[in-house]
């Protein structure tokens, strides 16, 4: 008996000691380190519920522990009836009602609609990347891919759509998730309240490369945001060094422009991601690779191997020199 | 599901002191369907054609972005398996309602029977919507009818609704039968009757009922209005109360008695520790705001395993230990049992406890790899180690079950000193089951009716012998269990196997789009089933009544409400209705999501043809009822004429029904409106086809003198079928022809 209790205590201490550093570490995709109002409200709810759940669990196990002991008197019928009514019905009803009121009350702030002047960004889920459209201040939109830059302490509304299958937009540090459903536009409110880099992921199974559909989010000060947007709005610069220049020619000659747009050049395809500033992106292939000339070359030659069922074909038939040149060109698109 | 049905079909007759359930051949048919369908679906993985769209199969991924057979294997294979589940539901519901021993009023039934009744009814309402959904899905995949294609008015969310109307109750369909095992085990080892019997029954019924009102909690993140989220949050929380009541009743039973330690109780204790935690995380994720984060993450993976392993696997292991002597006459080893338990319990917690954290750190479900530096690595490693330990525990349990035990002595009779009727079984178990069917006056007759076992053994009760050489069991009334009939139960036959093979062929050939082979197989299945019915059902006995013992004479043949066949038809048709109303739900769903439904630019079926069809079908129904009356009055010619006319009206009605959309040029591939209209029309037409075959069958039965004025079960049951056809026809015609007029007049 005493031995078993000791084992239980040692086990729970080990679990707590092991979990604490993991919970404390600031991981980029964690719900436990909120950087936005929505995620903060939900994390608060979670901690209260988790504490309560552990208490109730311990209570039930304690009762079961007591019930299996043979050195006690059997309970009377009246006591048992009271036990069932209070433990099985009254107590859960009170706890659940409280929780329900709290949960429903949270829905209002989590799903509020920001004012008309708030920033509205369209994000379109595609197998297996994110097409992002920012308003550019005029009636036009700038099309980007796989990353969001957001000004801190401002409400942002995302208009979520899908071009093919169902995806789900989820940046755990900022807010809960929202599905992207073909034929519909869903909305998600983000209110980042601290600057930093965060990671998002597709949360609805969308095919073979669902696991390679991630998203980079950078929350910055307003000025920095505007500088970034201005840079993204600008057309691509013609490269100056010879290798990159050869790459630019190869890019157009091999027909890459049929699928990709590089603003300021003849490439105007709309199938794949816009590459105007691809060299400046935080990641390549929706969070799958880092962005440098090596990974770009690998991606051009072996995209479907890296990311199964991706629509980008493998161009390994092209001469190696051309691939190297194109990778250099794309890396130079800052 | 198969585990639950195997358990139930094995022990339910013994719990009820019955010789057998009323439809052993239906059970055999269901079993073969399960086996063939299960091998087909699970075997697909070895041929690299396994379904790859997740168990939820969300379109459009599975309709437009996955080629190959995978999705078709899922849709048609599972539809086929569902046939088996529905067959089992019919068998178990009728078994609980009609084969209880005399005196076992419904409030004296063992709790296991109550749970089976609840689960059977849940299957009737949960599986048919999925069958309807499968039908729409397969029509889209095979024939391009755009039910889930937004470009042509469809909506992928309709599938999610239909799937989860099935999918959530399914969770409770797995959970409740296992809790039923706990409800049998706990009183035995407390050596006390269960405390709070009525509370448990109410809670089980409440759980079953509520489980149909919370499917949307799988869809909180689809962007639905706050009001819907609020409603379904409340229902999802409420189900925790009914579960809590059941757990507290079990604890109260332990508190009322004094526990005897045993391996089954060890597994029950483990189940409690695991399940309560799963229930508590369930309360957390039922709350929409937290679900916005937790949905589709490893937190949910942890939650659902805590619920299902704690709520299903551990109770099943307890049940295997507890009931093993009933199946084999031998006990399992307590030592191996304890090893299995601790390996499973520790392995389970090591595997799944960390997943709560993995999910909170942001790991989504259904990923086969992940990036480094997200904090998932160590946690997943621990989970993997735990999974192996859990598997080792299961292996020990399996080894104990299959190891040879020729030398092991038989278990003592009633080895756990239980109080319920199944422990009347002799050791070694005998093929006739209970020696004589007792009169029951208590919930725990072996405890409360002294001398019962001896009296049963000496044949002092009902049906002590088989003087006529038939398998017989008692049929009693549904509420008070008054004996009303001595039912002859059929023996083994190959027809059930052939019927299952051909039914399977119809589904499996259709998977490969070999439609003529599928059609031939379906026709053969129908032929075998008709032969099975013709030779094996509604047999006119050689004597009207027989002495069943204790001076009671009971009829050997009953038709109408006292007969098990009538109840089986009623229950089947309730299931059929829930599939039909799921299609109607689909129609109305399109109307609610679209401002332009039915679309003004597209033709409808008109009003003339559908109304003509309705009138003809109602005539067919009324003529069938008149034929039933003619037969009772022994007016043979008028009976045959009435049935012939009803066949003609039925065929003409089906033709008129198809004529509406056909002549008005409704093309099902064009838009979802003609597609759903056609789906309703096809559904009704197929049912009329079945109804017409039944009418013709009754004509032949009477002609061959297998149906007489006194022995009229066939025409009685078919009359019941046609009641439902009249309702189906009226609702179909109203939906496709009248409803568009009402909405366009707005």
- What integer is the average pLDDT of chain B? 95
CATH class of the largest domain in chain A: Mainly Beta
User: Which superfamily, in CATH terms, is the homologous superfamily of the largest domain in chain A?
Assistant: Cupredoxins -  blue copper proteins
The backbone outline of chain A, from C-alpha atoms, is elongated
Main sheet of chain B? 2 strands, antiparallel
Low-confidence stretches of chain B: none
Percentage of residues in strands of chain B: under 5%
Mean model confidence by pLDDT of chain A:
94
Please tell me the total number of domains of chain A: 2
SSE order of chain B, one letter for each helix or strand: HHHHHHHHHHHHHHHEEHHEEHHHHH
Walk across the major sheet of chain A and give the strand order: 3-2-1-5-8
Global structural class of chain B = mainly alpha
Give the N-to-C terminal Cα separation of chain A. 68 Å
Number of strands of chain A: 10
Assigned CATH class of the domain at 2-18 and 100-402 in chain B: Mainly Alpha
Count the helices of chain B. How many?
A: 22
Short description:
Chain A is an alpha+beta fold and 334 residues long.
What brief labels describe this structure?
heterodimer; A: about 325 residues; alpha+beta; Immunoglobulin-like; five-stranded mixed beta sheet; three-stranded mixed beta sheet; 7 helices; 10 strands; about 15% strand; elongated; B: about 750 residues; mainly alpha; Cytochrome C Oxidase, Chain A; Four Helix Bundle (Hemerythrin (Met), subunit A); two-stranded antiparallel ribbon; 4 strands; globular
Explain how this protein is built.
By secondary structure, chain A is of the alpha+beta class. In chain A, about 40% of the residues lie in helices and about 15% in strands. Chain A has seven helices and ten strands. Chain A has helices at about 1-25, 35-65, 75-110, 220-235, 240-255, 295-305, 320-330; strands at about 120-125, 130-135, 140-145, 145-150, 155-160, 165-170, 180, 185-190, 195-200, 215-220. In chain A, the strands form three sheets. In chain A, strands 3-2-1-5-8 form a five-stranded mixed sheet, with no helix packed on it. A three-stranded mixed sheet of chain A has the order 4-10-9, with helices on one face. In chain A, strands 6-7 form a two-stranded antiparallel sheet. In chain A, a hairpin with an 8-residue loop joins strand 6 and strand 7 (about 180). In chain A, helix 2 (about 35-65) runs antiparallel to helix 3 (about 75-110), helix 5 packs across helix 7 (about 320-330) and helix 6 crosses helix 7. Chain A starts with a helix and ends with a helix. The model of chain A has no long low-confidence stretch (mean pLDDT about 95). By secondary structure, chain B is mostly helical. Among the domains of chain B are: about 1-20 and about 100-400, Cytochrome C Oxidase, Chain A; about 600-745, Cytochrome c oxidase, subunit III, four-helix bundle (Four Helix Bundle (Hemerythrin (Met), subunit A)), CATH 1.20.120.80. Chain B is built from 22 helices and four strands. Chain B has helices spanning about 1-15, 25-45, 60-65, 70-100, 110-145, 155-190, 195-210, 225-255, 265-285, 290-295, 300-330, 335-360, 375-400, 445-450, 450-455, 495-510, 515-535, 565-595, 610-630, 635-665, 670-705, 715-745, and strands at about 470-475, 485-490, 545-550, 550-555. In chain B, the strands form two sheets. Chain B has a two-stranded antiparallel sheet. In chain B, strands 3-4 form a two-stranded antiparallel sheet. In chain B, helix 6 (about 155-190) packs parallel to helix 8 and helix 11 (about 300-330) runs antiparallel to helix 12 (about 335-360). The mean pLDDT of chain B is about 95. Classes of the chains: A alpha+beta (about 325), B mainly alpha (about 750). At the A-B interface, helix 1, helix 2 and helix 3 of A face helix 8, helix 9, helix 10 and helix 12 of B.
């Amino acid at each position: 008996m005493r031995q078993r209790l000791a084992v239980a205590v040692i086990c729970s201490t080990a679990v707590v000691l092991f979990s604490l550093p993991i919970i404390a570490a600031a991981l980029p995709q964690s719900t436990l380190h909120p950087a936005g109002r929505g995620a903060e409200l939900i994390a608060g709810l979670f901690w209260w519920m988790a504490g309560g759940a552990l208490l109730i669990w311990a209570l039930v196990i304690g009762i079961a522990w007591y019930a299996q002991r043979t050195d006690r008197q059997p309970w009377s019928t009246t006591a048992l009836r009271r036990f069932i009514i209070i433990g099985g019905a009254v107590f859960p009803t009170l706890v659940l009602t409280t929780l329900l009121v709290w949960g429903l009350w949270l829905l209002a702030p989590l799903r509020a609609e920001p004012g008309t002047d708030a920033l509205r960004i369209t994000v379109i889920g595609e197998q297996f990347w994110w097409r992002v459209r920012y308003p550019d201040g005029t009636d036009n939109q700038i099309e980007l891919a796989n990353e969001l830059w957001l000004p801190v302490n401002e409400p942002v509304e995302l208009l979520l759509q899908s071009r093919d299958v169902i995806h789900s937009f989820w940046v755990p540090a900022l807010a809960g998730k929202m599905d992207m459903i073909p034929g519909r536009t869903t909305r998600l409110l983000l209110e980042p309240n601290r600057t930093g880099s965060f990671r998002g992921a597709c949360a609805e199974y969308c095919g073979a490369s669902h696991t390679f559909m991630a998203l980079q989010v950078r929350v910055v000060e307003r000025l920095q945001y505007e500088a970034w947007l201005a840079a993204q709005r600008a057309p691509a610069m013609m490269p100056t060094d010879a290798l990159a220049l050869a790459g630019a020619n190869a890019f157009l000659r091999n027909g890459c422009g049929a699928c990709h747009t590089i603003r300021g050049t003849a490439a105007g395809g709309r199938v794949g991601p816009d590459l105007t500033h691809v060299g400046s992106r935080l990641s390549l292939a929706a969070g799958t690779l880092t962005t440098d000339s090596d990974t770009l070359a690998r991606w051009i030659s072996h995209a479907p191997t890296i990311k199964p069922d991706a629509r980008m074909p493998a161009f390994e038939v092209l001469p190696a020199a051309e691939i190297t040149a194109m990778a250099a060109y794309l890396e130079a698109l800052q | 599901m198969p585990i639950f049905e195997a358990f139930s079909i094995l022990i339910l007759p013994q719990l009820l002191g019955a010789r057998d359930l009323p439809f052993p051949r239906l059970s055999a048919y269901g079993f073969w369907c399960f086996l063939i369908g299960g091998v087909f679906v699970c075997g697909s993985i070895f041929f690299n054609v396994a379904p790859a769209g997740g168990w939820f199969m969300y379109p459009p991924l599975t309709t437009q972005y996955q080629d190959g057979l995978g999705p078709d294997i899922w849709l048609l294979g599972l539809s086929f398996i569902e046939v088996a589940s529905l067959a089992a539901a019919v068998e178990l519901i009728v078994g609980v309602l009609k084969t209880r021993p005399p005196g076992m009023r419904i409030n004296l039934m063992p709790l296991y029977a109550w749970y089976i009744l609840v689960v059977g009814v849940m299957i009737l309402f949960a599986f048919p919507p999925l069958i309807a959904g499968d039908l729409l899905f397969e029509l889209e995949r095979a024939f391009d009818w755009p039910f889930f294609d937004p470009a042509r008015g469809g909506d992928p969310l309709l599938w999610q609704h239909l799937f989860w109307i099935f999918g959530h109750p399914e969770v409770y369909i797995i959970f409740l039968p296992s809790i039923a095992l706990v409800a049998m085990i706990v009183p035995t080892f407390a050596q006390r009757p269960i405390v709070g019997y009525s509370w448990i029954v109410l809670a089980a019924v409440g759980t079953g009922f509520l489980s149909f009102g919370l499917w949307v909690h799988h869809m909180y993140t689809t962007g639905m209005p706050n009001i819907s989220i609020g409603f379904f949050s409340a229902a999802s929380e409420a189900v925790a109360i009914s579960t809590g009541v059941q757990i507290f009743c079990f604890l109260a039973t332990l508190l009322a008695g004094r526990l005897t330690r045993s391996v089954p109780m060890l597994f029950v204790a483990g189940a409690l520790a695991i399940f309560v935690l799963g229930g508590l995380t369930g309360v957390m994720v039922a709350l929409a705001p937290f679900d916005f984060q937790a949905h589709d993450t490893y937190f949910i993976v942890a939650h659902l395993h805590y619920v299902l392993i704690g709520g299903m696997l551990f109770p099943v292991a307890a049940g295997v230990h507890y009931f093993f002597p009933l199946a084999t006459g031998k006990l399992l080893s307590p030592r191996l049992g304890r090893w299995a338990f601790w390996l499973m319990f520790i392995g389970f917690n090591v595997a799944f406890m960390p997943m709560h954290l993995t999910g909170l750190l942001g790991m989504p479900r259904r990923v086969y790899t992940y990036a480094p530096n997200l904090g998932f690595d160590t946690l997943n490693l621990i989970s993997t180690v735990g999974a192996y330990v859990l598997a080792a525990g299961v292996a020990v349990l399996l080894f104990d079950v299959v190891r040879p035990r020729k030398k092991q002595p038989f278990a003592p009779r009633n080895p756990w000193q239980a109080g319920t009727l199944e422990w009347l079984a002799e050791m070694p178990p005998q093929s006739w089951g209970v020696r004589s069917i007792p009169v029951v006056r208590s919930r725990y007759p072996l405890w409360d009716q002294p001398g019962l076992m001896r009296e049963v053994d000496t044949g002092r009760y009902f049906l002590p012998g088989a003087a006529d050489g038939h398998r017989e069991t008692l049929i009693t009334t549904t509420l008070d269990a008054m004996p009303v009939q001595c039912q002859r139960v059929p023996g083994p036959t190959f027809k059930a196997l052939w019927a299952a093979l051909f039914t399977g062929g119809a589904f499996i050939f259709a998977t490969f789009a070999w439609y003529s082979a599928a059609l031939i197989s379906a026709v053969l299945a129908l032929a075998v089933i008709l032969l099975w019915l013709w030779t094996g059902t509604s047999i006119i006995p050689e004597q009207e009544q027989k002495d069943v013992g204790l001076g009671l004479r009971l009829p050997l043949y009953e038709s109408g409400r006292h007969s098990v066949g009538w109840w089986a038809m009623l229950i089947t048709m309730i299931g059929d209705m829930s599939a039909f109303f799921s299609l109607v739900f689909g129609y109305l769903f399109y109307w609610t999501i679209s401002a332009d439904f039915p679309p003004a630019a597209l033709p409808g079926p008109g009003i003339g043809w559908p109304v003509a069809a309705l009138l003809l079908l109602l005539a067919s129904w009324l003529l069938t009822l008149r034929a039933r009356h003619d037969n009772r009055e022994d007016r043979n010619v008028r009976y045959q004429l009435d049935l012939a006319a009803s066949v003609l009206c039925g065929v003409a009605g089906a033709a008129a029904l198809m004529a509406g959309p056909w002549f008005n040029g409704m093309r099902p591939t064009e838009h979802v409106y003609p597609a759903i209209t056609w789906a309703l029309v096809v559904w009704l037409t197929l049912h009329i086809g079945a109804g017409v075959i039944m009418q013709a069958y009754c004509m032949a039965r009477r002609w061959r003198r297998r149906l007489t004025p006194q022995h009229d079960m066939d025409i009685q049951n078919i009359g019941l079928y046609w009641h439902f056809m009249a309702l189906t026809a009226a609702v179909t015609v109203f939906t496709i022809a009248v409803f568009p007029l009402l909405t366009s007049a707005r």
